[in-house]
Amino acid sequence: MKPSRPQFLKVEAYDGNSRLSWTANIEPDMSSYSIDRADGKGPALSWENIGQTTGTTFVDYDVALNPVFEDEISYRIRAFEHRLNIQIIAKQYG
User: Fold this and answer.
1) How large is the C-alpha radius of gyration of the chain?
2) 8 contacts 25 by C-beta, under 8 angstroms
3) What whole-number distance in Å separates Cα of residue 16 and Cα of residue 60?
4) Residue 57, domain member (yes or no)
5) Is residue 2 assigned to a domain?
6) What is the CATH number of the domain that holds 87?
7) What is the mean pLDDT of residues 24-51?
């Protein structure tokens, strides 16, 4: 069975960077989460993997938040279980 989709993804400012947080999956065989980022928004994005974690938070130190800058960045979190089934959630941030 696939892991459930990570829920309640939030993106907020953290020391001038993007801090992502989400609710933990409840499956007992969860192994990690993979974090991907893309410039822009919409269905045809080019995703780049920027990290992995076993926790439910991640700080993107490669993106400096600037209220004057109006570029949009999208994030998605992929949940992995030990059998490598994947489920995806996407969040737009701009």
Assistant:
1) 13
2) no
3) 10
4) yes
5) no
6) 2.60.40.10
7) 88
Q: Which of 12-16, 19-23, 39-43 has the highest mean pLDDT?
A: 19-23
Please compute the mean of the pLDDT values over residues 3-32 and round it to a whole number.
86
Contact assessment for residue 77 and residue 9, using Cβ atoms and an 8 Å cutoff: yes
> For 3-72, where are the E strands, in sequence order?
7-14, 17-23, 30-39, 48-53, 57-64
Number of C-beta neighbours around residue 26 at 10 A: 8
Confirm whether 37 is domain-assigned: yes
| Token representation of residue 52 | 């992995």
- CA pair distance 77, 81, nearest whole angstrom: 13
If one compares 30 and 89, the residue with the highest pLDDT of the two is 30
By percentage, how much of the chain surpasses pLDDT 90? 31
- Number of separate domains in the chain: 1
> In the prediction, which pLDDT does 25 show?
84
Domain that holds residue 23: 7-93
Query: Is 1 domain-assigned?
Result: no
